[in-house]
Amino acid sequence: MTPILTLTLNPALDLATQTAEVIPGPKLRCTAPRVDPGGGGINVARAIRILGGTARALVALGGTTGQRLAQALKAEGIAHTSIAAPGETRESFAVTETNSGQQFRFVLPGAEWARVDIDHLLEMTRQTVPEGAFVVMSGSQPPGVPARFAAAVQAALPQGARLVLDTSGPALHAVVDQPIPGLALLRMDDAEAEELAGRRFADRRDAADFAAGLVARGVAQRVIVARGAEGSVLADGAGRLFGAAPRVEVVSAVGAGDTFVGALVLALARGEPRDCALAQGVAAAAAACITPATELCHAEDVVRLLTQVNVETL
């Protein structure tokens, strides 16, 4: 199997709890928190482990919270390489209101990065990534990291390594405005794609047209647009596909996108064709939606839901 590495610049120690009602003023008595290592690339690595694969997580960690996060990674059996990060690793906090089922998510910022921190991370990437590997860069970028950072990561990769990018905001705009030569895969959600397009998509075919246009412009060799509960479209040089998502009752959508990426990349690393990889990603994302808080997916749910995923050519 092709090696997989994930890169997380702005990880978080994820805390999740429940309370009857979220209201201002009184103390809100909560349940004992669930604690998980979080951040885009970390979640991708966690999903890959759940699905029977192996990925090494390259993680920028700082302070005592960073030490706790490293311990949580070890406890989950995630092989990781710690990269020194400035300041204190951030925390995130999710509260589920049991009376309504609504979830409130509080995300703290990461510490400011300096040029020396960026150079150190790039050097560690050069030393760690083997030739031909999949490298998944997912999640937010901390303050001080330039929007074009993904281009520097691509330039640091060894021969044959393939960069998979799942990002948003200025970093996503930077990739679309100034394409990164050789970018293997770019994923975004429907709202992000519509913002880039400057219009609403009428349907999945409209989204697929947009994704195919990015491929034609050389933004990435393969572009995926996630359409929430509907499914995901994929466009590349071989054409356009749509993977219809199975209907599930959503408990928490936290980590669904990262779980999609983990399942998709694992399938590609195992040599499966792109339609099967897309189906795996769609099924895994749906499975993540039926678990609470930051639990991601269960392998048996992915297997069951996979039979309900239909992939069609658009």
Automatic annotation (TrEMBL):
GO cellular component terms, A-Z: cytosol
Protein name (database record): Phosphofructokinase
A Pfam family: PfkB
Family from the record: Belongs to the carbohydrate kinase PfkB family.
Source organism, top-level taxon: Bacteria
GO molecular function, one term: ATP binding
Residue ranges constituting the Carbohydrate kinase PfkB domain according to the UniProt record: 24-294
Organism: Gemmobacter aquatilis
Record bears the keyword Transmembrane: no
InterPro entries: Carboh/pur_kinase_PfkB_CS, PfkB_dom, Ribokinase-like, Tagatose/fructose_Pkinase
Keywords: ATP-binding, Kinase, Nucleotide-binding, Transferase
